[in-house]
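Assemble and predict.
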Amino acid sequence: MFDVEPIIADHKDVIHDVVFDYYGRRMATCSSDQTVKIWDEDDHGKFNVTSSWKAHSGSIWRVTWANPEFGQVIATCSFDRTASVWEEVLGEKVSNSNAYTRRWVRRTTLVDSRTSVTDLEFAPKYLGLLLATASADGIIRIYEAPDIMNLSQWPVQHDIANKLSLSCLSWNTSTYMVPQLLAAGSDEAATPTGKVFLFAYYENARKCVKMETVNDITDPVTDVAFAPNAGRTFHMLAVASKDLYIVNIRGVTDSTGNAKLELQTLKFSEHNCPVWRVCWNMLATMLISTGDDGCVRIWRMNYARQWKCAAVLKAEGGGPTYEPTPPTPTMATTASATAKFYKKGSIGNQVPWH
Amino acid sequence: MPDEDAEPATVSIRICLEGHANALALNKDHNQIAVAGRSLLKVYAIDNYEFTEVGNMRGKNQNLSYSSNDVAWSTLDSNILATAATNGVVSVWDLSKFGKQKQLHVYNEHERTAHTVTFHTSEPILISGSQDGTIKCFDFRTDKSVNTFFSNSESVRDLKFSPHSQNMFSAVSENGTVQIWDLRKIDKCMVQFTAHSGPIYTCDWHPTRNWLATGSRDKQIKVWNMDARASLEYTIHTIAVVGRVKWRPERTYHIASCALSLSPNLDFVAEDTTNELRVHECFIGCAKELLLSGQKLADLCERNAEVSKKYGKHNATTLWNFIKLFYGSNHFEPPFEHRSSFSNQKNPLNARRALQTASEELGQDLNGDEAPHENVADSEDADDLGGVGQQQPPPTSSVILSETQIISEITFDNFELLRNGFIYVGPADVTKALAFPDTALHHDVQAARPQLDLKVSDHEKSPPPHVPSILKVSHIPPIRMWEPHQFVADALMLQNDVGDVQTALTVLIALGDARNLLPLEDRIIEHWFHTYVDQLQRYELWNEACAVINRAWMRSVRQLNQASTVMHTNCGECGRPLGGNVGWYCDKCRSMQSAKCCVCGLIVRGFYAWCQGCSHGGHIEHLQQYFAKHAKCPKCGHLCAYS
């Protein structure tokens, strides 16, 4: 089922982040070796490095793509306390072909943070070219490029200070509910308080305020991800912490006419170890989580509106290791034949199935 | 999860048996189950939420002390059962008889334990496999075996007739071999191969593909493609010895297995998620193939149901079929004259008309119904019908009846789909879990059925002359109309919640004017449009996105197509902007020079390509040819850098 194809990234140190662009045709990786690599898919579906450059003077934590409407733009954030915005420009024509050389040019460096910038993400496109960053001193900064043709100007629009250091953030891309939501998580281990915060961004009023804290999650949070806009009337936020959480967020209006959030936190302990990263597929029908156990888990919602782990992919030590295939006595077996079925669940005598 | 009990997707029903159950078998209608085991042979009817015993073949007067290893239900006659016993006896039972007569035949031919018995799908023939290594074929109209097949192995553990070939059956044995036999060829098997390193306990043919699954003591389930010569398709590693395997109906890649072990907690459903995880192909395929309009709704539904089925979206298939049933009839298609006056939420008249229409379509005879209409003409009761009941006495009872008919019709058509749940019996070492494809439909339909409580009382108002005197109906409580609209809306919301906005929105578009009946907020629908268009564009399906936008009935969505469509052109002669003029006519030069192709000099009709830098252009194919050899503009020598 999973034709796992290892890609030799040739980064000299730990890879911290890998992100696809809007169409899934390009990929960006960043690493502790202070470089960023851009990968392009060729006609055979293989990804090849088309650009690689030293982007920061510290470990690069995250990389994020802007909507292609704004051109080929990425942003990176680093331990060196800065975040940078990069744009791809076409150079001169390569002789005897129609292709051009491509170069990534640093358009700006955002130096407002006094500590490591831990995460950043471009806002959904209808808000304009907007970039939110989270830093270890607990400040969320929202930058905006007022002129999308000139990416060197990124004035800070908002900065929101928090008591806890922040490790991750995610924009909600759904247009269904105003205000626009921004979630952030903290990896602070010392305090037993809620670690996921929800902020409301009001485009017209140009303000950004904290709306809610998810009090059910008190363990350090390493990643948050809003599900892509999939027509639902509620929003789903996946949280990677000591366990995997999915927070269903519903916008309601209380009797005084104020917008309020109704939260429902679901906990999944199948990883049995800290969860590192969470990621949704484009249609928001699948959630992928990775954990300390070396497993990638795929979650799906069934028709009873419950999330179930649909598959586990073990990838330890470089390549995928499935359970070894015992040699079949008479028949030749294909290598992938063993990996096709997964235990879906078990039916106990005492426990009703649903 | 908090709402776990709110919507049971599957139902577990349980019963405690007095003996050890070794095997069970469902009859062909899936409403009765036979359980066989150590001094146990019973038949239960499967009711909504419980088992009811309907037959016990180990009564006092049938003092047969042996225990059964296997039980099978004839596919021809729903009263015929066969069992294979540990002492080698194969018995055929007739449920329609009484007492000792129930035991139709006792074939005492196997020398050792009979492990398995199975019926032919169309002939009155059964075959049994035994520890003595033989397979015997019986005709249950006679009392002797017809044929004996010698498997040349120590023990035949399981036999299954192939659903793909009339006379073919598979036999698996304890030495790990699989044999394929032809009923007519008793001297030698057709195919033989070694499948497992340990004894094979079970096999099952895939209902649609030519696959055979085998389960063995080596804790593996293997799926063999039997097309030419057997080749291994999949291997599933399980945690225990495999006792039984069973393919899930309607799902290509689902197989259930149970463990052969004394620990009761080991059965599980293994599932291949290949099909479900192939969402990209599914999404793109559906986006391209689902029809949005252009045909009659019934045809649209039928076709889209097929497309959904092709991509493995069984719930979507059911939904399309449902839409076809309720909205597909002609009576529903013209826009309702009351649409504006009645709010789209509560409209019992339309709802009832829908039911009647649908029931007429289903061939329900409404005239044969005796329920007296006068009973309902009570003004109090008719109030909730919006006063319409006064002018036109509603045939209430027939509505109920026809509705049940609809339900039974759906149930019949999609029986496999609607039977929802695991049938689970016994603490035994061999249990089968039979799963049917999930659908929430059945429960919703059940829940939506109005209950007709007939109150019996002595003081009736006006007894209609033809009502029998014993049962006097004085008051029928107001009957809640069952309208499909809320239900369909809920189904669409569910579809959407599981991430399938594609189906939800396509249904809505296909419904045409009938969509106004659904109690869905415009805000949600608008949100769905934006989402789906966004998804299509991410998959670079521009044409499909455009088709969806064009069919939108909301301004904000239709405007998506009109953004950034202005093109600025300049005159190729004088360089002045041509904005506001007709075509390529230049006001200043008073010429149509710019409309001509700068390569061939003719006026361009169709695609016109031009350089934004020098405003010269022409036929796109001419320019392509020209710029393949040159880099500069054919007219002015500008470096156009055409690529």
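The two ends of chain B are 57 Å apart (CA to CA).
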